[in-house]
Each structure stands twice: as structure tokens, then as C-alpha cells.
Design brief:
Distance between the termini: 68 Å
Bound molecules: manganese (II) ion
Number of helices: 22
Helix content: 55-70%
CATH topology of the largest domain: Hypothetical protein af1432
Shape: elongated
CATH superfamily of the largest domain: Hypothetical protein af1432
């Protein structure tokens, strides 16, 4: 049961020089500067606001709702994020689930917090509807990321707490949330280089999505892993002595256990055929050193100690993986001839591999924030592919429709709105409910009698904005379409359909 004190503690721990030091050498100063700017009184105010807004509400598990807000904020604080993000995490469910609005949030906590909460509320509209919607959902995620990466980080913390409290939900909903986590959230965490986040999401979802397979892993595979942990412990003792003798500075040597779900996927591959003895990296030895030179040095020393298996040395330092992962990997015949995988990396590479974009955040803070399109926080250079992917996905879809590529400029002038069911529809800027109606279906366009945007009645020539949820009210007896609509529709599809229905009527 998380409390306000737990949250304040999580923030202070991040601020503590020791915690900062343990993250990255030389980062203490940077983190110190960053967290000093977190005003704990503001955090407390946000907590009180959220507590009052959600008062009387309970989670399905019976706990007061505020505990979910706190758990999300604690997750965000542990990622080392800044004050607006922690406050937004506390308030993330306020507009959707309480009588308070975004306007109230903006009045009390400013526009930056309000913008973050808006982003999360928009993402909340996405509903899982199986793999067919997968690409579309992914695209929406990327769009929100491109706007402000902190939105997706709050969403991760929110999702982790939801997964931790899944048992209270009806089976159908439980399965949907768990599958969505496996198929949408975890791959995004992976693409952002957040290996730790990906693993946590997958392992929380695994028992709900594949309960029998999970039990098999627990019963048959875990004992093998536990035996291997012991082997690696022995090997670590030997390696430590040898590296000491060679006077190599080593930060840390530890055993890395493969996460359950990723191991499960590996076991399913035909070459392993569900046999854990064929997998060499069930438990790996991991060596953290100060510099890149030390990495290669350690590799040489350990190869001299234990004979390497041919063809299994991977240099991800000179050739990083697409998500930025860096390390040296090798497999050797370890003590007693037992096969052992070794991973060697600098501490900075380790931070990067575990925390990905969140580690980036710290670097970014060091250099100060740069707004993207005048708002939010820009993606680090290394992650510009997120933007590129948004553009790329868009042009792929358009290619299918128009068979010729569209420029990036076209993308920039488009908006994304949602149906009440959470499906995304992209339209040109300043499109109206009538454009939306015709995009969904000609019949809906022709019988369109009114429209609601975000639950408010609007006129049919209202301008839609990014993230709006649009609902069309139809009336089958209405003598539509109207000639007047031609004055304000933005899409040629709507214009053509209106013209042809008018012609047919005459
Ligand atoms: Mn939530």
C-alpha cells in the first residue's frame, strides 16, 4: 500500500548523491541539480488534489483509488523524471474519472502538467482489439512519444501498477490488458532501449496470457536456472581473482538471470526445442568496467583463462544493436568445462541497456531541455527514428491508398482523431465532423445530423483537433446532405460524396 511518504522517499532517494553515484560516474552533480528543482511541497499539493478528486473511489481490488496514483508517481520518480512528470503521474486519471477537469489542473499546476495529463488521457482511448489493430495502436503511441516522451514513461508506470493489480479484474479484461502489455507496451519499451521495463512488463503479463506455459516454466525450468546460478557464482569468484591479479579496475561482477518470458520465447525456437540445457545464457556473467578499453582488456584476460567457443564472440560495442544496446558478448568453457556466457560493458552502457530512454533523460537534463514544436520535451538525437517511423508508417499507409508517396509536409498537416471505440482516423488539419462522418462511411455522412467532440455537442462545421474523440449522431429521416456542407468540408472524399448524393437526389 503506497503512501505519500513512500513517494517523497522515492524522490529523495533519486536526489541522494549515493543513489546518483550508483547510476553513473560523474552523474551526481547532474542529478543533484535536476532533483533540487523538485519542490516537495508542490508534490504534496498535487497529492492532496488527487486525493480529494478521487475520494470515495475504489480500485476493483477494493483499495482507495489514490493508491494507484501514488504507485504510478513512485514508478515515475524511480525513473528519475522531473517534477511536472511526477505531478502529472499523480493526476493522470483525474480528468477521466473525477469531477475535476483539465482546466482545473492547468489552473492549479500550470500548462506543462496539463499538457502531459492531456497526452495520457488521449492514450487512454486506445483499446486493444487484437493484432489487426496493433499497427495502428503502435502508431498512436509513436505519435504521442514524438510529442513528449514523458507521456509514454508515465503510461509505463501506470501500466505496471495495473498489471500488478490484475487479479481483481474479470478474466476477459485481465486478458486484454495483459495481451496489450505484451504486444504493444513491451515492444515499445524495447525499441526505446528500456530492457528493464520491457522485462518487467512481460513477466507481469506472462502468467495471465499463458497460464499453463507459465506453470511449466515455474515447475520445469526454474530448477535448471537455479542450478546454473550456482555454477555462475563459482565462475565469478574465479574471474574476480584473475582480474584482481591483472590489476583491472572492475566496478561490479554479477550473475544475470534471463527474464522468464524472454527465456520462454527462446525455448520455443526450433533449435532449442524446449530444452533449457541447449541455452547457454540462462544465467550469464556480467562484468562492469570503467572504460571501453577495459572491456576489451577483460575479454582478453577471460579468454586466456577459459577457452572461448568459436564463432560466439559478439562485439556490440563497435556495432551497437538498433536500439542502442552496447556490450561485448562471448561464450567460454568455464570452470569444470561448463559452458558460460559472459557480457562485458561499461557502467554507462549498462545504464543505457537497463533504462534506455530514461537514462537518456538524465543526459538530456544535463544539457537543458529543448522544446519540440514549441512544447514538450524533444527526443534525444539517437531516438529520432521515432519521428522517422511516424512519418514512415504514415507514408506506407498512404502509399497503399494513393500508390504514390506523399511528402513529410503532408503528414505535418494532418490530425489524428478517434472514434468512440478508440479507432484512429487521420484527417487533414481543420477537418470537420462531416469529413469525419464521410471518412467512416458514406451512409453516416449522408445521414449526419449532429456531432459530439469529447462528449460536447458541436456544430457540423467545427474544426477537429488532434486527439479529439468524435461521435456522429445520425438520423435516417434527415434530408441530408446539405449543399452548405460543401462550403466547409476539407477532404475531397467528403466533397465528392456530397456532390454525388446531391446529384442522385435531383
Ligand atoms: Mn491509471
Amino acid at each position: 500500500m503506497p503512501t505519500l511518504n513512500d513517494l517523497l522517499k522515492a524522490i529523495k532517494e533519486q536526489r541522494h548523491p549515493a543513489a546518483a553515484m550508483s547510476r553513473l560516474p560523474g552523474m551526481a552533480r547532474v542529478l543533484g541539480n535536476r532533483t533540487k528543482s523538485i519542490d516537495l511541497d508542490m508534490i504534496q499539493l498535487a497529492y492532496e488534489f488527487a486525493e480529494e478528486a478521487h475520494r470515495g473511489q475504489q480500485r476493483k481490488s477494493g483499495e482507495p483509488y489514490i493508491e494507484h496514483c501514488l504507485a504510478t508517481a513512485i514508478g515515475v520518480a524511480r525513473m528519475g523524471l522531473d517534477e511536472p512528470t511526477i505531478i502529472a503521474a499523480l493526476l493522470h486519471d483525474v480528468p477521466e474519472d473525477t469531477n475535476y477537469t483539465l482546466v482545473d489542473i492547468e489552473k492549479n499546476f500550470g500548462s506543462e502538467v496539463a499538457r502531459l495529463v492531456t497526452g495520457i488521457t488521449k492514450l487512454g482511448v486506445i483499446k486493444y482489439r487484437g493484432m489487426s489493430r496493433y499497427a495502428e495502436n503502435l502508431r498512436k503511441m509513436f505519435i504521442s512519444m514524438a510529442e513528449d516522451i514523458r507521456i509514454i514513461l508515465i503510461k509505463f508506470a501506470d501500466r505496471i501498477h495495473n498489471l500488478q493489480t490484475l487479479d481483481a479484474l474479470p478474466p476477459e479484461k485481465r486478458l486484454r490488458i495483459a495481451r496489450e502489455s505484451l504486444e504493444i507496451y513491451a515492444p515499445i519499451a524495447n525499441r526505446l532501449g528500456m530492457g528493464n521495463m520491457k522485462g518487467v512488463l512481460e513477466d507481469l503479463a506472462f502468467p495471465h496470457v499463458l497460464p499453463e506455459e507459465y506453470l511449466w516454466m515455474k515447475k520445469d525450468i526454474m530448477p535448471v536456472i537455479n542450478r546454473r546460478v550456482e555454477d555462475v557464482k563459482q565462475a565469478i569468484a574465479v574471474a574476480r581473482k584473475e582480474l584482481q591479479k591483472e590489476k583491472v579496475k572492475v566496478f561490479e561482477i554479477h550473475g544475470r538471470q534471463k527474464r522468464l518470458y524472454s527465456l520462454y520465447l527462446k525455448l520455443l525456437r526450433p533449435e532449442y526445442n524446449r530444452d533449457p540445457d541447449k541455452i547457454y545464457d540462462l544465467v550469464a556473467m556480467r562484468v562492469l568496467v570503467p572504460t571501453v578499453t577495459d572491456c576489451y582488456n577483460v575479454l582478453g584476460i577471460l579468454h586466456n583463462l577459459w577457452r572461448p567457443l568459436p564463432g560466439r564472440i559478439k562485439d556490440y560495442i563497435s556495432q551497437p544493436k538498433p536500439n542502442g544496446y552496447q556490450s561485448l558478448h562471448t561464450t567460454v568453457f568455464g570452470p569444470n568445462g561448463k559452458i558460460l556466457e559472459i557480457q562485458i560493458r561499461t557502467k554507462q552502457m549498462h545504464e543505457q541497456a537497463e533504462y534506455g530512454i530514461a537514462a537518456h533523460w538524465h543526459y538530456k537534463e544535463a544539457g537543458g531541455r529543448q522544446p519540440l514544436r514549441g512544447k514538450g520535451v524533444e527526443l534525444p538525437k539517437k531516438l529520432q527514428w521515432v519521428n522517422d517511423l511516424v512519418k514512415w508508417q504514415h507514408s506506407i499507409q498512404d502509399n497503399q491508398q494513393y500508390l504514390h508517396s506523399l511528402s513529410i509536409e503532408v503528414f505535418r498537416n494532418r490530425i489524428f482523431v478517434f472514434t468512440p471505440h478508440g479507432d484512429v482516423i487521420d484527417l487533414p488539419e481543420d477537418a470537420t465532423p462531416v469529413d469525419f462522418a464521410y471518412h467512416v462511411h458514406s451512409w453516416i455522412g449522408n445521414h449526419c445530423a449532429g456531432a459530439r467532440i469529447n462528449n460536447h455537442m458541436v456544430s457540423l462545421d467545427a474544426k477537429l483537433k488532434n486527439g479529439d474523440v468524435v461521435e456522429i449522431i445520425t438520423d435516417k429521416n434527415r434530408p441530408n446532405p446539405s449543399q452548405d456542407w460543401l462550403k466547409f468540408v476539407k477532404t475531397s472524399a467528403a466533397r465528392n460524396k456530397i456532390r454525388s448524393s446531391l446529384a442522385a437526389k435531383r
